[in-house]
Amino acid sequence: xxxxxxxGGGLVQAGGSLRLxxxxxxxxxxxxxxxxxxxxxxxxxxxxxxxxxGGITNYADSVKGRFTISRDNAKNTVYLQMxxxxxxxxxxxxxxxxxxxxxxxxxxxxxxxxxxGTLVTVSS
Length: 124
Fold this sequence. Notes:
This protein is globular. The strands form 2 sheets. Strands 2, 4, 5, 6, 9, 10 and 11 form a 7-stranded mixed sheet that branches. A 4-stranded antiparallel sheet has the order 1-3-8-7, with no helix packed on it. It has no helices and 11 strands. It is an all-beta fold.
């Protein structure tokens, strides 16, 4: 099993920045793709950004140019740097990991492992 623990959420004003972190533990040898998903109130969960073990990335169109995903394999940690935040970025952000190392055009909604989420609130 793999455990994912997110940190770094909070309240920020529009235009501000936050950095989310997600530390993986347990059977980490099985992890390849890691990423971030979010769920806003009343909306379905959506993919935000994912990264393969080799550094290939994919971003949602809504965050391209503002968010950057990165990972430190030595620390088993994935990060999401969020800049120029907008009120519509308000959501619970979930870390996810998958045994597959494939990054496709579409986000995988059935990732193998999920964190419990961290709340990001952007005020206008």
